[in-house]
Amino acid sequence: MSVERYYEDARVGDECTSPSFTVTEAHINAYADLSGDRTPIHLDEEYAKTTPFGTRVAHGLFGLSIADGLKTQADYRFLPGMSLGWTWDFLGPIKIGDVLHVKFRVGSMRTTKKPGWGIVVLPSELINQDGVVVQRGEHRLMIPRRPNA
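RE: above sequence
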C-alpha cells in the first residue's frame, strides 16, 4: 500500500500509471441509469450499428469518471483535498470490452494564499488496451500541505 502524499511530497515531473479497468455492458447501463442519459448510442446495439462507431459506446463523462477513479487507485496518491476542476477532451470512443488505464504526471505546482494548502495540476491520459489515448486533459487539485511546512 502506498503512502498518501502531502503537497511537499510531490515533484513536477512525477509520473504514475493506474491499474486497469475493463468496460462492461453492465457498467454502461448502470451509468445510463445513474446519469439519466439514455441516448441510444449507449444502450441500443441495433441503433449503434448505424452510427460511425458501428457499436455501442460509453458516455464521454463515463470515461472521465473512470479516469478519476483509476487515479485514486494508483500508487501515487494525495491526501484527500478538493478537486478544483477538470479540462478534459474526448478523443475517441470507449467500447464494451475496452481495458482502460490512466497515465498521469505532476505538471505544475503552486502554493495558495489559503494556509495549509497547495495546488497541483495533473495532466492525464485515459488509454485503451491498444495504447490509444481515448480521452485526455488536466485535473486541478488543492491538497493539504504538511503541517508546519
